Fold this sequence. Notes:
Strand content of chain A: over 45%
Largest interface: A-B, 24 and 21 residues
Strand content of chain B: over 45%
Largest sheet of chain A: 7 strands, mixed
Oligomer: heterodimer
Order of helices and strands of chain A: EEEEEEEEEE
Largest sheet of chain B: 7 strands, mixed
Structural class of chain A: mainly beta
Number of helices of chain A: 0
Shape of chain B: globular
Amino acid sequence: EIVLTQSPGTLSLSPGERATLSCRASQSVSSSYLAWYQQKPGQAPRLLIYGASSRATGIPDRFSGSGSGTDFTLTISRLEPEDFAVYYCQQYDSSSYSFGQGTKLEIK
Amino acid sequence: EVQLVESGGGLVKPGGSLRLSCAASGFTFSNAWMSWVRQAPGKGLEWVGRIKSKSDGETTDYAAPVKGRFTISRDDSKTTLYLQMNSLNTEDTAFYYCTTLRGYSFKYWGQGTLVTVSS
Lengths: 108, 119
């Protein structure tokens, strides 16, 4: 079973700043199988990035994904007030899916 | 517009059973691979299981914690997804989300239904 570890657990930044969120896998993950989600309080998660770097429909271009192998990154180039939320990475391997534990992005 | 509406959540005693439903609309349900994802209150996301489309064999896969206790099924004529949960324990307390699979990611999500397992 592939375990995803996200860091940091909490990231405190101000609007306008750049956010870099990390997702590390316990073994290599195909880039095609790595996704990122945003979840706000009281809401269902929303797909942001799939295939490690492709933005989902309607996602602003300030969100970008990169990485390969065991190290993946979600970057938010310039934070807007609505971007403060919890972010999860997710992978697929051998008919099974798993999520990282999440990174909380909070307003500094 | 894609809509996924879960129902059937509630309070159940340990050892009990519950069946969740997810009414889908706005897309071709019969072609979709569907999944359930859960989230314990204040915790992270956990994949529960997946069912493929009928044309892909309607095969199911489950996460280890629920394998043998939970069963996912679908009724394409009613565009509805089901999750039958048996032998429930307190660790199954969570919001249960119905999702569509797009490739290897979860594209559309319902609003979730809360299952509470408590005596």
